[in-house]
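[Q] Does anyone have a clean structure-token version of this?
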Amino acid sequence: MNEPAKHLTRFEEDGYLLLRGLLQPLAFQGLLSRVEEAVDRRTRTLYDEGKITNLHENESLQHRWQRVFEDMGGYQSRRSWDEDVIIEDLFDLMRQPALLGVQEWKS
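[A] Here you go.
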């Protein structure tokens, strides 16, 4: 069985496919920067509104929002992240040639 056929079989069995190394880390930089800006903006708003008392500025992106969430007693408003992160950077990531190639062999 060729590699694309193996991947397709795996996807059909598991419902997802993990392709390590498909994208280089640099491909994510624009999106990660945008998410980091959104987390910072929301954290500062919550701080200004008195809903949290710590900006957690020394936390990594991976942990900062979790700390803010904990400070709010585990409550997060139902506000969507779409307007903050569904932007050009995400579409640039989705248009990476490596991802488009995966989609092509599925068709």
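[Q] Thanks! Anything notable?
[A] The two ends are 17 Å apart (CA to CA).
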